[in-house]
Amino acid sequence: MTSQPATKTTTPMNISDLISHNDLTERALRIVIVGHVDHGKSTLIGRLFYDTGSIPHERYAEIENTCREQGRPFEYAYLMDALQEEREQNVTIETTQTQFRSTKRGYLIIDAPGHKEFLKNMVTGASEADAAILLVDGVEGVREQTRRHAYILGLLGIKQVMVAINKLDQVAFDRARFDQVAADTRAFLHSLDLTAQFVVPISARDGENMVRRSDKTAWYDGPTVIEALDAFAPAVDDAAKPARMPVHDVYKWDDLRRYAGRIETGSFRPGDRIRFQPSGHESRIRTIERWPDGPRPSASAGACVGIILEDEVYVEPGELMARIGDEPIRATEVHASLFWMGRAPLELGKTYGFKLGTADAEVEVVAIEERLDPSTLEVVERFAEQVRESEVGRVVLKLKTPVAGDLFDVNPKLGRFVLVDGGIVTGGGIVRNYGVSVGDSTARSVRLDE
Predict the structure, then answer these.
(1) How far apart are CA 337 and CA 328, in angstroms?
(2) Are 322 and 242 in contact (CB under 8 A)?
(3) FRET pair for 254, CA 20 to 30 Å: which of 30, 56, 159, 319?
(4) Are 110 and 152 in contact (CB under 8 A)?
(5) What beta strand segments (E) does 77-218 contain?
(6) What is the rounded CA–CA span in Å between residue 11 and residue 207?
(7) Quick one: pLDDT at residue 143?
């Protein structure tokens, strides 16, 4: 059995008593923890929970006693198993969230254990992480799955990254081994235009450099995991970005149409002149309603609202509402970087479902400009016929009907998409360029490299 945990540096607390679920969701730094399946993710999360006092000691003792009765050693990963059981049993809303708190602020862990979960959540916004921990086994080093997950961090636009090099207890906390794995990881992240702000040597199982500083790494003078998390900047305010609301649906009662949706970025207020794309319909906002509060003087990113306009315009779900003069791009062609996870390869000339925001369209793959090895990001083939499972491609997609969106570098929320084949999400990508068909009266083409 592992030794008893060291004295914690924070006062044990029940996080639901400290802060409400809504406040935590709005204020907490949202983090995602990724890495190879066997590199210790659950143990790291369980240790963070216990060492920050975010899980009651009684719960820990109960699991420890169960392990003793069953004749197996206690593992901090079992704390996460217990939380998963509570989620499946639909216990209170506080316990269904994976959340903990340092002495500085709250944290919300976004649970996305694999490629499919990442890509599916790209549409719903559940993977809107502010920062990431990339977990690497100090014995095995960077593995292929590590590289793939790092690439997906780039697709998700996550720029704040900490690398935690785990299981260093198995190499006697050897500095040379840590330096080698750290250098390999930094080099690969650099090839993805990602930078590790911190690289921390840890043993998640033993709690070394998690919350308390370890005397086994006297050669290391950087932060612990919790100190590194606390040093990350708060999320960029989405309200400062261009005003965008994908239309989810249109309802009519009291003889008034309400255009319902979630404001993804920016803000709107009554009196704003707006245009829906790709239809081009224009009007002015008369009223903004937010249930159950009723009319509001304004609404910003994250708010789910109903918009009443001065004119009755007919738009479909999937349209994108924006303020006139600061609008998205209306396009019939998308140039993208794509991560493919379908068992059947992405094929040149084939038609797929395309989802961006609330827009749902069909696209034809008209060019596969490059096919890349996801482990090295080296070009395997130019002007290819297909992209295979777990490979990366630079592709050109022709839309059967126009859609509206932003460039990924300008507005990640409206600059990434997923592809669907047979009702299953099989790929996800980021928009690098937009183009339009010849003869389109609203022709506009934008490239990131211009």
Answers:
(1) 19
(2) yes
(3) 319
(4) no
(5) 99-101, 106-110, 131-137, 160-166, 196-201
(6) 17
(7) 83
* CA terminus-to-terminus distance, the chain: 60
State the pLDDT confidence band at 334, using cuts at 50, 70 and 90. Answer: very high
Q: How far apart are CA 189 and CA 187, in angstroms?
A: 6
SS3 content of the chain, % helix, strand, coil (to 5): 25, 35, 40
As a whole number of angstroms, the distance between CA 149 and CA 127 comes to 13
Q: Which long-range contacts (CB under 8 A, 24 or more apart) does 348-354 make?
A: 348/384, 348/385, 348/386, 351/400, 352/419, 352/420, 352/421, 352/426, 352/427, 353/419, 353/420, 353/421, 354/397, 354/399, 354/403, 354/417, 354/418, 354/419, 354/420
- Rounded to 10 deg, the angle between the 57-70 and 77-88 helix axes is 100
Give me the mean pLDDT over the 414-442 stretch: 79
> Which residue, among 208, 207, 186, 188, has the nearest Cα to 197 in the 3D structure?
186
Specify the higher pLDDT residue, 321 or 450: 321
Q: Which long-range contacts (CB under 8 A, 24 or more apart) does 386-391 make?
A: 386/345, 386/346, 386/347, 386/348, 387/338, 387/340, 387/345, 387/346, 388/340, 388/345, 389/340, 389/341, 389/342, 389/343, 389/345, 390/115, 390/148, 390/339, 390/340, 390/341, 391/340
| pLDDT-above-90 percentage for the chain | 48
Q: What is the pLDDT of residues 114-144, one digit of tens each?
A: 555 665 554 444 457 789 999 999 999 988 7
Token pair for 390? 């777990």
Mean pLDDT for 186-196 is 88
Question: CA 78 to CA 98: how far, in whole Å?
Answer: 14
Q: From the CB of residue 174, how many other CB atoms can be counted at a distance below 10 Å?
A: 14
pLDDT of 444 > 80? The answer is: no
d(CA 197, CA 182): 12
E strand or H helix that includes residue 303: none
Lowest mean per-residue pLDDT among 37-41, 81-85, 358-362: 81-85
Dump pLDDT digits (tens) for 7-52.
Answer: 333 333 332 333 333 344 446 888 888 877 666 787 888 888 888 8
Question: In the prediction, which pLDDT does 255 show?
Answer: 85
In this structure, are residues 405 and 431 in contact, taking their beta carbons and an 8 Å threshold? yes
Identify whether 234 is preceded by a cis peptide bond (ω within 30 of 0): no
Retrieve residue 284's tokens. 């002015």
327 confidence band (pLDDT: 50, 70, 90)? very high
**Look-up: residue for tokens 């502010």?**
130
Burial grade of 320 (CB within 10 A; 0-12, 13-18, 19 or more): buried
User: Residue 42 in contact with residue 133, Cβ under 8 Å?
Assistant: no
Tokens for 161, please give them: 């990254």
